Amino acid sequence: MYLRALSSLQDRGVATVSSEELAAAAGVNSAKLRKDLSHLGSYGTRGVGYEVEYLVYQISRELGLTQDWVVAIIGVGNLGRALAGYGGFASRGFRVAGLLDADDSIVGQEISGMTVRHIDRLEDIIADHGVSIAVIATPAAAAQGMCDRVVAAGVTSVLNFAPVVLSVPDGVDVRKVDLSIELQILAFHEQRKAGGPGDYEPVAGGIPGAVVADAAGDGAPPGAAQYIEAVEA
Amino acid sequence: MYLRALSSLQDRGVATVSSEELAAAAGVNSAKLRKDLSHLGSYGTRGVGYEVEYLVYQISRELGLTQDWVVAIIGVGNLGRALAGYGGFASRGFRVAGLLDADDSIVGQEISGMTVRHIDRLEDIIADHGVSIAVIATPAAAAQGMCDRVVAAGVTSVLNFAPVVLSVPDGVDVRKVDLSIELQILAFHEQRKAGGPGDYEPVAGGIPGAVVADAAGDGAPPGAAQYIEAVEA
DNA sequence: GCGACTTTGTGCGCGTATTCACAAAGGCTT
DNA sequence: AAGCCTTTGTGAATACGCGCACAAAGTCGC
Prior knowledge:
17% strand, 10 strands, 3 domains, Arc Repressor Mutant, subunit A, 3-stranded antiparallel β-sheet, Rossmann fold, DNA-binding
């Protein structure tokens, strides 16, 4: 996030920036920013701030963005297509080495300048291009199987968009992006603003510590009556 | 996440589940799971576990998923298209009321059964359909402007995919999903496995607490070649 | 060259999240 | 009906992240 804010400053021709300004741009507290940056070393100048260009370089280096990373995208549905065309990857040193799918009607198509290849060739492509990061954008049912294959082929970092918890051996990193969970979190807060669950049983004070037993409070029935019984029993 | 794991159990016809099993499925510690669930009330049976169907209902209700939420998607590029076609929304009570874009060559197109409408009609659509959640999938430059408009029109929850920090008034919730940051995080860990920044200056022990001063840290020379000197010096 | 001013780097305290570990609770078997 | 066995719910301990506040460090003006 700091890198993003710094790039933006760089575009505007700003040469130096104080922790206060950069923190505001990144949406964090300035003390936190200074502490974070201090973990990289002491790159600021007291009384002045940080030199933008130098800081960009140091952060990029620490994040490993000064080298190229080879990525394979598994699953070329709507999401896979969006990822293939996402400009944010190339600009940060991520090179997409392959788009792979199991569907023969998709294999061979040209997407964002790349040809979709059959999933059978997964292992070849990983080995040939030195893929170290796999992006899984398959349906949930296929995700674990694909994950196992990429890991077996030597990939040690996985970005998972499928709504499942992937299990991997030690030494393999997995990150998960779950679009519908993000919406659910928003819906939860939205509901809170409107006055608690179903507008009749507000959560006390916040989620943590709030022990709101559904005291006789029958929760609205979807499958219906049985739940009311369950609560009242 | 618990809801997702429970749905999966439900599909397999499992009637009851212990905290241990559910925690494993969701990828968390079982004590944490029990504490989380206890905040909703006491819905487990000692010696037995939790009834899957009942728990699904209680969590859904607490999250506000027993009611419908109306969503507008702003920006119909690759990502907007993927979101429009994402099945995970409808199945959790999220209804897409509109796809909006500023590009006349996109307006009028049919995507996933919905017609893309011009951004001029944003305020109408929000008011007419009672949109409470806006999804921003525009380019970075347009995001803050669109955010201001949806907030002015009464939306109080925003899911932002654009790589900028949105500023909003108090009372409005913003969540951010940043695809390239996820990849950068993976790249960082990948680099760590391979032996630190550039393979010559490993971070000590971990990020927090690691004060890897750029020993002999001479100040701040701009220009790529000089950075290498700075590090090697 | 010196003093005032600005801004970094960080010690400290606070609140929260996470985990352990166990007593209480309930079902199941005999 | 009584006791055993399983599993929950939670107090206590620990770990962690965040922000405040300030001393140290460096710049800029005079």
